[in-house]
Amino acid sequence: MHSETVLLEGHIIDSLTLSKVLDTILLLGGTYEIHRFHIGATMDQASQAEIIVQADSDERLENILHQIGQHGANRKTQEAVFAPAPADGVFPEGFYVTTNLETSIRHQGRWIPIDNIEMDCGITLRRHEGEIVAETVPLHKVRQGQPVVVGDLGVRIAPVERRKTESAFRFMGSETSSERSKARMISAIAEEMRRVRADGKKILFVGGPAIVHTGAGRYLEAMIRSGWLDILFAGNALATHDIENALYGTSLGVEIATGTHSVHGHENHLRAINTIKSRGGICQAVESGILTCGIMHACIQHQVDFVLAGSIRDDGPLPEVITDTLKAQDAMRERVKQVGIAIMVATTLHSVATGNLLPAAVATICVDSDADTVVKLLDRGSHQTWGLVTDCEYFLKELVACLNGDAR
Amino acid sequence: MHSETVLLEGHIIDSLTLSKVLDTILLLGGTYEIHRFHIGATMDQASQAEIIVQADSDERLENILHQIGQHGANRKTQEAVFAPAPADGVFPEGFYVTTNLETSIRHQGRWIPIDNIEMDCGITLRRHEGEIVAETVPLHKVRQGQPVVVGDLGVRIAPVERRKTESAFRFMGSETSSERSKARMISAIAEEMRRVRADGKKILFVGGPAIVHTGAGRYLEAMIRSGWLDILFAGNALATHDIENALYGTSLGVEIATGTHSVHGHENHLRAINTIKSRGGICQAVESGILTCGIMHACIQHQVDFVLAGSIRDDGPLPEVITDTLKAQDAMRERVKQVGIAIMVATTLHSVATGNLLPAAVATICVDSDADTVVKLLDRGSHQTWGLVTDCEYFLKELVACLNGDAR
Amino acid sequence: MHSETVLLEGHIIDSLTLSKVLDTILLLGGTYEIHRFHIGATMDQASQAEIIVQADSDERLENILHQIGQHGANRKTQEAVFAPAPADGVFPEGFYVTTNLETSIRHQGRWIPIDNIEMDCGITLRRHEGEIVAETVPLHKVRQGQPVVVGDLGVRIAPVERRKTESAFRFMGSETSSERSKARMISAIAEEMRRVRADGKKILFVGGPAIVHTGAGRYLEAMIRSGWLDILFAGNALATHDIENALYGTSLGVEIATGTHSVHGHENHLRAINTIKSRGGICQAVESGILTCGIMHACIQHQVDFVLAGSIRDDGPLPEVITDTLKAQDAMRERVKQVGIAIMVATTLHSVATGNLLPAAVATICVDSDADTVVKLLDRGSHQTWGLVTDCEYFLKELVACLNGDAR
Amino acid sequence: MHSETVLLEGHIIDSLTLSKVLDTILLLGGTYEIHRFHIGATMDQASQAEIIVQADSDERLENILHQIGQHGANRKTQEAVFAPAPADGVFPEGFYVTTNLETSIRHQGRWIPIDNIEMDCGITLRRHEGEIVAETVPLHKVRQGQPVVVGDLGVRIAPVERRKTESAFRFMGSETSSERSKARMISAIAEEMRRVRADGKKILFVGGPAIVHTGAGRYLEAMIRSGWLDILFAGNALATHDIENALYGTSLGVEIATGTHSVHGHENHLRAINTIKSRGGICQAVESGILTCGIMHACIQHQVDFVLAGSIRDDGPLPEVITDTLKAQDAMRERVKQVGIAIMVATTLHSVATGNLLPAAVATICVDSDADTVVKLLDRGSHQTWGLVTDCEYFLKELVACLNGDAR
């Protein structure tokens, strides 16, 4: 029988962490003995458990240790092991794959925290102003010879904390049920946005084109004009629908104000792109006085930092759209660092892409009228992700009202 | 080759009726010749077509004539044929099955319109104040010996009219897309409700329990208190959740005002029922001052005529619930006669049951947060049915605002 | 500060029970101290915890004790308290509301288990062959003067066990994801059905009309004819569609074999009902040789015990349909006692109604093509409930193949 | 009053075209008179209508003429008008926007058909082997000075034909209902694939990663190995999941064969990409004997022409993935020219992108387990698009069985 002792500490009972660790051991075919267990006598005290993990082969044991390590059950301290990347864009054999949880590595006798934690990356070292810093590196950016962590040794993950009691979201539970009062949840989101701002962090909005279709663009525009957004992630479709609406009052040919099909309907979409291309870009169209309102106009006037990422379903696209998906991803990656809350509305593609880049600790709100989409997004989520199954029109209208303090 | 000539008249081109008739003939294996065709030269004039239908057997021909008869392609005038019901609750062989479209029968040389048209019934005759009237009879109510129409002869259906241009819903199209502005559609519904009232017809509301769960009960209550509803169809669940909320401030144990789980949570549901049963009923609970607010309280105070229909998933149920489904159906059947608009929110069971009873000409609105449900309801619908995929909370909040004239 | 000590024992860590109890205490505004804690050193040993619960008021404390009692954190032994029902169909003030978990009450110094545990009932005593037995009683069946448990004292609930390791479902997780291999899950269900049979328990099938629409009726029929079902719960629609198919080869007028619309289409539905009514019932129609195949025919030939429960959307209905919902519920209640597995396919109404009646320990499978429906059913479920989002056609075809041992 | 006469001919009644044209005129605020109408006396003969369209302004009239032109109601013959593109990637003011219907332009006294018709493009002229050919050009490919059609004059669209009677899909209707027999529909698709092959056209498959997750990859692989696919459109995810499965037996860490979570689970995804990148690509990995089975392996062995298009949610990506979305679109555009049937399974992004490129006449099948997705795809579709709401596992298993002639 092969065995190894691991330590687990923190609020490991009420956060379900201990249960998950024991369950994982059993699920992967191992057994355990709890060697030492000190439970926090009151709810403020942390608990500690020392668990002996056993398995019938060394390989199985390694696998179990690896998995429970991802819940924060860490082996005795050892130094992290590095190997050089064998080529550009290739990690060394056995590279450590990051999670989106708070992570540190042991190097030269001390724990170095990873600043820009992101899931599904490697960990590398870099010298910065005479200091050694550890950071994540996505596969396409690693360069030949760069040191990359291999194996689990010397990698420490902080167990997920229970959701903070004081959080505005406390009552929201983890359910995605469409059968709950949305007004209350939206009010909590507004409150959280205020808190994020007070903490000096940024508010990221990720949006899909249905926001404009449904006539809800004006609420998003209002949020921008009242200074509530710092960063916008979207695609060619949202920007084009918005500009089509600004230029012709339609979205895919439907008049937003009256809901009727416009003459020359559907084509306005392509004409809007052509008009912006003929001026050189959205910014130039604003400057030249062609584009005088709408979401994109508001972004430019209020210095909201936007990334328009390309997709294969795009018409055009607009000049600002980054058609190379790796470059678009890097542009998004760069901007998520200071984000304190991410609000993702009516887009699966951009929401999943953004979720991939965010640390687990960032509060994330997913809004979609289709329950399946919300469930899919939450599946990838952490304890700090909430879903609302509702219209983006209702969500944004109510959110603007809450932010302006005049919720009905 | 067997053939027969049918007549079709009305706005048969722009209502798609002619296309459907010709398509049906081909689909059922027949062929046609258009014998005479007079198309209305302008859009105000009706068109007439005389179509020779051909088939290779008499049986096939009969089938085709029967099917296209349901679109209003009627055979030359003949008297309706009757046969006596062989037993209580049993129609005679070959009985005519009604649609929900405007229908008349030919009897003793004149056309008698069916007053209470309802789909999937038989047609019978009754003597009323010396007059012979024709009316639908559901299967369970037919009595032995009662005359029932058999076959298609002498039954005439008016082709469906195109949707009226002046209708508030004109722009809504037939789509159920969740990607449209709901605010505009809801405003059109409020307008239609005003029109129905001006016409002296009644407003029917059909609602499910999610209305209370989501905190939207107060909007329904407000609609009742401002006199906007005449009839309410619901089940034990809506009434119980509403009363639970009125008595304890919870719905299935969730505090509506704060969204948090209440102590004694889930049980409040059963306690609410028990409390009302101990008083003898909702009405008595209102009178005795136990029940002082909520939807059911408003119904009793404002003489809204309600039917609570039982289902096998009910707890309790409340004394007012009609547990026999045939009796509940008859109670609903009785009340739909004067209805000018039916608004059905967040309930598949009661919406389908109500839809079964309504004539095709009654404007019907189906609201549900699940697109599948709305599509299912519309599948059974007519040209006067519209679906909204949205939260009931948003729908009702906005509708009340529109009815009160203060829509944002 | 008010406080009370509770005991919790069993596999309380890996079943998450301890975590849930501590979380509930905090959520309801209490605090705790863990007085004594003995953790099972190996995974086979049970753990015990003695927890001191504190709250700032006696009422709050009672509430917490009540809630955590539902997870199996029980107070020191006290006798259960009874009060007489004040009237027929009315429980006494403060009655204990049952869960669907294994429950016992303390009476005259010993623990009496509740045999027919069912959620949302009261608990009463009955003398049976000289013995006192404790049993649940639904609200509508309680009679004036009958003793009913009030309050929590002397009521003990067994904490939920972790899912059994040997279970065929072990790997299925609790997810409802549509993105998993169904073939594997269906094979596990077949295995579980075999196990249930070997244990001498019964197999319950709950089905909706889409089974017939989609052409999957033949698979259900095959299961019955190979003796795999003991009990069938359905409504008028499933039986009528099945009989329509048996008599005319259509379901709601669509020819099952070819998928084309039949002449006289939709009416076949009503004609089928009329034909059965004219014979007096399904059983008579089988005997008289009118009905010669289909699901209902198979049920009668193979002595499958069926309950057809009425609903307000029924046409007809068929003579066997129990139109009174309370009587239908009682008929279902009677039959669930020996059930070892419940397979619920394509029906929300009957699935929820059945789920309300089943003990938590019965393995329950919910199958629907709409993810929302499955999620809704699972929300009410226990650790022994699994959901599959898939076609009933695929599910039944594959299940029959697995039961017959020829799965591809 | 401004007016103009248009001609409409073909099977304009049973294809609903006439109804749509008249409806559009009214919807856009015009009126009409039917000047001359010749209805095909039998179903084989085409009908002709000459319609006088009237409107109160010239602008409105132009709009109406433009819209009904898209249904094939064409003005009297005039030459197409051209203007030069003002810059690279910019169309001239008032450019004609293409539909996906069969289109010709009038140039130098004769009608020139557009070969590569595609919606939302411009029309340009090119000299090819001494001949003038007309073709579509997407916005990003137009070059300064290139002639582009402006306005509607001289552009002729063939009205949509009714679905061909002989088509295997005839019975399928346009519904997307999940309540129909899938077995029959899938059998019809197999039949259509045989027909497409017999016609010398190509079969395109568009697939999402759920195909691999659900264990259905082996059916797709089998289709490729039996030579049923010519072209595959997919993304990085499908290819990576397939390769992960080939290398490690897992998909996102779930063991496909047993359904259990694998050790090192989720990371296998990234390791699979890294392994392929270290070899230089999928093709090299096949050649070097690293990759020995799976969908991608089958594509390379059987010369299936695949396009892997990048998206911002990609990890890695694999070397074969085209990360620039415009280049990926062009690669897809190039390949759709010979396609006779497109089968799109479990992917919204790639299905919509492909749908944008296909002519309306190509038979298109959309399969997804989420009804919303299928409805969304069909909304963009033509008369030759069908949707199936079902599991991709069931769909592919059944399709392979049908193609191999051993459908149960």
Feature tags:
homotetramer, about 400 residues, alpha/beta, Alpha-Beta Plaits, conserved putative lor/sdh protein from methanococcus maripaludis s2 fold, Rossmann fold, six-stranded parallel sheet, four-stranded antiparallel sheet, 19 strands, about 35% helix, elongated
Structure overview:
Four copies of one chain form a homotetramer. The first copy, chain A, has 13 helices and 19 strands. In chain A, helix 1 packs antiparallel against helix 2, helix 3 (182-198) crosses helix 13 (392-403) and helix 5 (217-225) runs parallel beside helix 13 (392-403). Chain A has helices at residues 17-27, 58-69, 182-198, 210-213, 217-225, 236-248, 268-279, 282-287, 295-301, 325-335, 348-357, 371-379, 392-403; strands at 2-10, 31-38, 47-55, 74-75, 81-84, 103-107, 110-113, 122-128, 131-137, 147-150, 155-157, 202-207, 231-235, 250-251, 254-255, 305-309, 339-345, 363-368, 385-389. Chain A has three domains: 1-75, LOR/SDH bifunctional enzyme, conserved domain (Alpha-Beta Plaits, 2-Layer Sandwich); 77-161, conserved putative lor/sdh protein from methanococcus maripaludis s2 domain (conserved putative lor/sdh protein from methanococcus maripaludis s2 fold); 170-403, Rossmann fold (3-Layer(aba) Sandwich), CATH 3.40.50.10690. The first copy, chain A, is α/β, with parallel strands linked by helices. The first copy, chain A, is 33% helix and 25% strand. Chains in contact: A-B, A-C, A-D, B-C, B-D, C-D. The interface between A and D is large, with 55 and 55 residues.
